Amino acid sequence: MIPTEPIKNSIKKYYSSFLDSRYHFISNRQALKALKHIEKQKGKLPIQLKKEVRQYAQETLGWKGYAPWLLVYTAICGKFKKGWIPDNYYRVVITPKLQGEYGKVSFLKSLTKPLFQTDTLVDIAYFINTDWFDHNYKKLSTPQVEKLIGKQTNKIVFKADNSFQGKGVKVFNTEDLNLKTIQNIGNGTIQQFIEQHDFFNQFQTNSTATIRLTTVIDKTGTASLRAGYLRLGRTRDTHISSKTHIRVPIDIAEGTLEEVGYLPNWYTITNHPDSKIEFKDKTIPNFKTCVEEVKKLHLKLPMVQCIGWDVIIDKHSQMVLMEWNGYGNDIKFSEATQGPCFKDLGWID
């Protein structure tokens, strides 16, 4: 009889290698496209600088295929910095070690409340495996869910499990909502539609802005903030989407927006293209409260050593946790505009 365990292991290893190769290909294609746009606006990188980047990728990271994102970071910064982590190196090499299966729990939106035991969430109900539940996992009938929704403003948000970058997120009007529409999407969470602070309304009112804060747990078990940026939507957006968003780096010491923001193609801008409001010298209200809160939350799940938190300040000046990203959270924008963000942590072998 042929032993099945070695065969299973071989298939698993082959499939994992295939997924890694696919990610490298997609990630580097995105990087080269971004580099093309950046160089179109800022000019070509010097040949010698490109040579230095490729040499670093080969000698320090072990493969020249890690160079494309390093070239993007260099083009944004205007110089090369040792310690930068390319997107594909982070995802393929670092993420499985620092986040692993525990980080993937963040894909299941309905588990956030019991994991973190926080009142900063705005969850209303969960649809899981054909049943409705409240935030205490008590089963609900359809009329009970409709009653809960009826207590909200004229909008609610549904986030499907495994949603990311705005995909799988739907905004519904409560007046004409049919719950079957949500059920047909699949498992996920109904949340309140957040009425954001006027600070964010000056830029855009249709969609709720997002503050992305990236925290880490170091070897001593200490949580710290490493990067932050503001994501803003466009006039036609109902929610933030990676296809259209505007990203503005935040001075994480003070909560002040940097002068320059970025379009999805990495072109730089100094004001919102719709409202024309400038980013410079705008300070996010209660920013330091947000920082302390996400650090406390991270300590509740320290085995996931790097987390991207999406939060916002509401009209009552309170922080609201929108979601957490514990597996493959995006670091490339922060590395390009604020990095190296993780140089002291020893993540690069």
Description:
It is a single chain. The protein has 349 residues and is α+β, with helices and mostly antiparallel strands. It folds into 3 domains: 4-99, no CATH class; 123-192; 196-327, D-amino Acid Aminotransferase, Chain A, domain 1 (2-Layer Sandwich). It contains 11 helices and 14 strands. A 6-stranded antiparallel beta sheet has the order 3-2-1-6-4-5. Strands 10-9-8-7-13-14 form a 6-stranded antiparallel beta sheet, sandwiched between helices. A hairpin with a 5-residue loop joins strand 2 and strand 3. Helix 2 (47-61) crosses helix 3 (67-77). The longest helix is centred in the N-terminal third of the chain and has 39 residues, at 4-42. The radius of gyration is 21 Å and the shape is globular. The chain starts with a helix and ends in an 11-residue tail after the last helix. The model has no long low-confidence stretch (mean pLDDT 93). Residues 190-332 form the Alpha-L-glutamate ligase-related protein ATP-grasp domain.
What is the compact description of this entry?
Helices cover 36% and strands 22% of the residues. The protein is an alpha+beta fold and 349 residues long.
CATH topology assignment of the largest domain = D-amino Acid Aminotransferase, Chain A, domain 1
Counting DSSP E segments of at least 2 residues, the number of strands comes to: 14
The description of the largest β-sheet is: 6 strands, antiparallel
- How much of the sequence lies in strands comes to 15-25%
Mean pLDDT: 93
Strand order of the largest sheet: 3-2-1-6-4-5
* Derived structural class: alpha+beta
Low-confidence stretches are: none
The ordered string of helix (H) and strand (E) elements is HHHHHHEEEHEEHEHEEEEEEHEEH
Q: What's the number of helices?
A: 11
Tally of discrete structural domains: 3
Helix content: 25-40%
